[in-house]
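Title: Prediction job returns without error message
Component: structure pipeline
Severity: low
Priority: P3
Assignee: unassigned

Description:
Job completed but the reporter wants confirmation the result is attached to the right record. Sequence as submitted:
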Amino acid sequence: MNKPAAEFAVELRDVRKSFGKTEIIRGASLAVRPGERVAIIGPNGAGKSTLFNLMSGRFGSTSGDILLHGQKIDGLKPFEITRRGLARSFQVSNLFTRLSVFENLRCAVLWSLGYKYSFWRFLADAHDANDRAEEVMDMIKLHKRRDVLAMNLTYAEQRALEIGITIAGGAGVILLDEPTAGMSKSETSRFVNLIREVTVGKTLLTVEHDMGVVFGLADKIAVLVYGEVIAFDVPEAVRANPRVQEAYLGSVLADAQVAGH
């Protein structure tokens, strides 16, 4: 008898994280359904990246539960969590700079297809890995840059390659940490469209400061303030939430309006 699918792709239950006597995450709870796109917003120092580090296994939680498709993952190592279907990108590009676009993607694909450490295997013969790398390269629209070293890509291209590496292994849950940081308006617009395309059918959680990106991409928004999720709802409801306006969003939107004049 098949096991029923979990109601939530990712679930946090009263998660806490302290560094010494300093509590960064203070009882965060969140439940994201499969296929939802969720933006996590909040002021600097709210604990957004720490939350991603907890979900991806870089940090261990002090207390609480983190579940992936209904199974506890807190306490697992990052590679174990990745093999269970959660992949994460970082604020700073994390690429093999002296490998080509294609080689970076092939490295990301190999383990997910069952290739283990082997010193006598010719990668040219790994046809399934090569085909998957080519497929992802087309998805992120870098096929014309196939043989260019990662170090010679533009910043936006490097970010696109990192997205490709994140999705290459076939993970169903994707965490993107400030994916459009440092991009121009036109680059950001193209990149948001790319994220939409490559995450179709996947569950997406992204930390993002650009409110245009947040309201244009997310199905729901989670607002993190002082390590607590104070609101989690559709964008229109979050925008109208008095507590969110007082704690964070009102000042951000006001700043954005001033900058636009």
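Comment from assignee: result matches the submitted record. The first strand starts at residue 10 and ends at 19.
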